[in-house]
Amino acid sequence: MRYWQPKYETMKKDELAELQLKRLKKTAAAVYNNVPFYKDKFRQLGITPDDIKSLDDISKLPTTRKTDLRDNYPFNLFAVPKEDIVRIHASSGTSGKPTVVGYTKNDIENWSDLMARNLTMAGLDSSDVFQNAVNYGLFTGGLGFHYGAERMGAMTVPSGTGNTARQLEMMIDFGVTAVHCTPSYALYLAETAKDMDIVDKLSLKVGCFGAEPWSSNTRKQLENALNIKAYDSYGLSELMGPGVAFECEEQDGLHIWSDHFYVEVLDENDEQVAEGEKGELVLTSLTKEALPIIRYRTGDITRLLESECSCGRTTPRISRLLGRADDMLIVRGINVFPSQIEDVIVDIPEVTEHFQVILDRNAKMLDEITVRVELEENAFTGELKDLAAVRRHVENELKSVLNIRTNVDLVEKGSIPRTAGKSQKVVDRRSIL
Q1: What is the 3-state secondary structure (H, E, C) of the chain?
Q2: Tell me: the pLDDT tens digits for 55-101?
Q3: Which of 77, 110, 250, 377 is deepest in the core (most CB within 10 A)?
Q4: What's the whole-model pTM score?
Q5: Using one digit for the tens of pLDDT, what is the confidence trace for 294-322?
Q6: How many structural domains is the chain composed of?
Q7: Can you give the CATH number for the domain in which 359 is found?
């Protein structure tokens, strides 16, 4: 069994708890002394960092939500001076503003090591060729995996997204042994490779997949179609990016790197659930310098699993995600909230405030989002070109906020169900195979 940082990956429970407490105290002091948002939160609760005497005292600390990052846009949650920030990333927020995260040099180093741990855990090493077929730029998935693969010493191919035939050509020509992309794109890669009759020419052995929900059946499909082992990756930009948790070769739950993140799984009363019970994943960063986050409500529902794993790692594990505590949708790796769509729709006079979101998976196995919107009676002139202009206007406004291409279907006023509740507002027809 190979490890990247065996000292931390196989640490005894008492040693780990001691390290976590030391790092939790340091993080609490950093946010209290340097981030006005957290200082106010601590004061409202009548606590200071000195009140943290044991790991159980984490329950005294305030929680943080995605809206807090949006409300403090862009840099007000940073705990270090701007000149110490060497990189920023951003993800879509619940309004037009993204949530911005920052990294110091040490943060980037830690992140690279976490990703190297993950890839080593999936059986990769410096002899591998790693193709990173995701977006680079502000999305954390691109550079996160890239730096980890390089840190591990693998030959790294920053192929980005799109041009599927070229992606497959590179895989063959460069002898690519591992690929990172969304599971839906991997299904399309597999389908295209089969159509081109080149599956036997691929050297792939490992696929790393994340950024959108996928099931055990999808895993089997990918493993059979591409002759690989398919690993689940979990991360979120607010905590670091990819690398927070990852599957080992046992493929039985995701190991969370608890020397860097303190894990809680809470019920609706904010009480820690028992092992095996489902609840909301709440994470505290223990080593982040630029953007330390206290008790972040991820909105992801999971189960805490026994820490004993036959791979030898002693970190806590979580099950694959079981759903969301809020109404966030994930479309092609991008977070989409119905509230964002509503904010756009209500500002367009030609349509009513009633809408419905339809999610489908197209022939290329990629997610498609269609928004059905009711046309105001006085907006229909009888001219098809006027209808097309309204539809284009709505599509453009949605794209500017959601950062994803959205199909718009204009329907007659009164035709969208008025029943309250997510089941009517969102129709998810994607077959999670």
Answers
A1: CCCCCHHHHCCCHHHHHHHHHHHHHHHHHHHHHHCHHHHHHHHHHCCCHHHCCCHHHHHHCCCECHHHHHHCCCCCCCCCCHHHCCEEEEECCCCCCCEEEEECHHHHHHHHHHHHHHHHHCCCCCCCEEEECCCCCCCHHHHHHHHHHHHHCCEEECCCCCCHHHHHHHHHHHCCCEEEECHHHHHHHHHHHHHCCCHHHCCCCEEEECCCCCCHHHHHHHHHHHCCEEEEEEEECCCCEEEEEEECCCCCCEEECCCCEEEEEECCCCCECCCCCEEEEEEEECCCCCCCCCCEEEEEEEEEECCCCCCCCCCCEECCCCEECCCCEEECCEEECHHHHHHHHCCCCCEEEEEEEEEEECCCCCEEEEEEEEECHHHCCCCHHHHHHHHHHHHHHHHHHHCCCCEEEEECCCCCCCCCCHHHHEEECCCCC
A2: 999 999 999 999 999 999 999 999 999 999 999 999 865 456 789 99
A3: 77
A4: 0.81
A5: 999 999 989 999 778 999 999 999 998 88
A6: 2
A7: 3.30.300.30
